[in-house]
Specification:
Rossmann fold, about 45% helix, globular, binds NADP nicotinamide-adenine-dinucleotide phosphate
Amino acid sequence: MKTILITGATSGIGLAAAQQLAAGGDRLVLVGRNPHKLADSAELVRAAGAGAVDTLECDFASQSSVRQLAKAVQADYDRIDVLANNAGGYQPTRNETEDGIETTFAVNHLGGYLLTELLTDLLIQSAPARILFTSSVMHYGATLDLADLGFHQGYSGEKAYSRSKLANVLYARALADRLAGTGVTVNAFHPGAVSTGVWDSLPWFAQPLVGLSKRLFFISAAEGAAALTFLATDPSVAEVTGTYFRKTRARTPSRLARDDALGQHLCAVSAALVGLLE
Ligand SMILES: NC(=O)c1ccc[n+]([C@@H]2O[C@H](COP(=O)([O-])OP(=O)(O)OC[C@H]3O[C@@H](n4cnc5c(N)ncnc54)[C@H](OP(=O)(O)O)[C@@H]3O)[C@@H](O)[C@H]2O)c1
């Protein structure tokens, strides 16, 4: 039985993916910040056929919470076959976490970065293993100013979200390079435009368009989750690493996402921001 850990497993793409992956009879480890939602999600995933379902609490806006999560995983599991870094959100107005970091960057990039770094040895021991990042097509429009990562100047929810999703691709590529030859693959993907709660945080004036798009154009959470499920399990991508996917198809990511030096810089800055020595 494989052990598959999914963050952001309490709604949308993460929950739908957990339900799909449960059909394989594996152990699903659901990570979420809300204990009630975790309990409800666990019931759904159990009903979908999981061999076992565990839940772990974590608020990705808090580095100490991420460290506690990593400790719990290290204590309770002797292997992790798939780590899906999927938790994420959109912040219409700029705010900072308890660690003094702009929240979008903290939750969408740094939280997954810290968790992955802390679990890397366990993943290598578990090889073959897969690490995934739910990124976005929004990364194509992103900028990355390492001197002002948190948009002290010129914040917008869209710019911060796009930057965090670029960071997902840059980190996935850099980590894939570092883990080459270990049997651990690292990939990032865009799930499609998916009808989930992430859109509900967009400003009020965008909501009529969001509502219309959800009804007419967006795919369902299950359809969006299909990419995560495919990348987590499909034998055809067992050896693929350092790749950006649009749904299940490999695609060339943005010019910035392919900038290896920028990726190294981002990793160094991220390590400093979470107190890890590179
Ligand atoms: N929907 C799309 O069109 C789309 C497109 C591209 C990429 N994505 C990405 O897909 C991922 C999943 O989003 P979704 O679309 O499925 O939206 P969603 O339904 O809102 O799910 C987001 C998940 O992340 C969790 N989360 C958010 N902030 C968190 C925090 N501080 N600590 C712990 N967990 C947190 C949420 O927990 P709660 O249940 O407690 O809120 C939820 O489980 C995100 O990374 C998003 O950026 C989505």
